[in-house]
Design goal:
By secondary structure, this protein is an all-alpha fold. It contains seven helices and two strands, in the order H-H-H-E-H-H-H-E-H. A two-stranded parallel ribbon has the order 1-2. Keywords: Membrane, Transmembrane, Transmembrane helix.
């Protein structure tokens, strides 16, 4: 082999090596481009998903704000109608506080990754707080309905009415008798005695009503009638007794 042929062979080998390195680098660059494009597409898809989630979160937050505002206005109006509330002192519905001055508890979010969920203080939503306020306002505006007296208590109402009426009648008789003596203001004392006689049959009704209210019941029209019946019987017996004595 001549030197020229050997040099030509060496040049061809170097050219083939350069072409192989070029092909290898082109393949690496193409693979890197494809990997970068796939990674960019993945990042873009994730960013679009996060943007869509943020839009949904913002829409839910706006809807919740509107619902909370409407519920707060309804509760404020209901509170203005509550018994014992002065409308002028209560005023109009106050404006909401600035967002910068409030903790970020508008919506419940998942705990941060790696954070201790048990260590985080429990947070209550605005709906929970408004529901609790609504229960308290309902108790004020519309008191709880009381159950009527049991049947065994109804049987005791005539006796209670008779006892209270009898005690009131005896007090009235004492006032009338005492007013008949020569004491200053005797006419007034006798007038009070006769007034007590008139009120004696119904004197047991407020006592029975107070007893029922204290034990969580209500005195219905039937119970009032039974109490009045016992009081009228007792008053009639007292009147007959005093009449026969005189």
């Amino acid at each position: 082999m001549t030197p020229r042929e050997r040099d030509y062979q060496l040049m061809m080998s170097a050219l083939a090596e350069a072409a192989r390195r070029r092909d290898t680098e082109l393949d690496g660059a193409e693979q890197a481009y494809q990997d970068s494009a796939a990674q960019a597409a993945g990042e873009l898809a994730r960013a679009e998903g996060e943007a869509a989630a943020a839009d949904r979160w913002a829409g839910a937050a706006a809807a919740q704000v509107l619902d909370v505002d409407r519920e707060a206005a309804r509760l404020w109006d209901q509170l203005r109608r509550a018994r014992g509330m002065r409308v002028r002192a209560l005023g109009e519905l106050p404006e909401p506080a600035a967002v910068e001055a409030l903790p970020r508890v508008a919506l419940q979010r998942a705990p941060e990754p790696g954070g201790d969920a048990a260590a985080q203080p429990p947070r209550q939503s605005a709906r929970t707080l408004l529901a609790r306020a609504a229960e308290r306002i309902d108790d004020t505006v519309r008191p709880a309905v009381r159950d009527p007296l049991p049947r065994w208590a109804l049987a005791l109402l005539p006796v209670a009415g008779a006892l209270v009426a009898g005690a009131t009648g005896l007090l009235a008789a004492g006032l009338v008798t005492f007013g008949g003596t020569a004491v200053p203001g005797g006419v007034v004392v006798r007038a009070l005695g006769w007034l007590a006689f008139l009120l004696a049959p119904s004197a047991g009704v407020p006592v029975a009503a107070a007893y029922a209210h204290r034990h969580g019941h209500r005195l219905e029209i039937g119970g009032i009638g039974l109490t009045l019946l016992g009081g009228m019987v007792a008053a009639a017996l007292l009147s007959l007794t005093f009449a026969s004595a005189n």
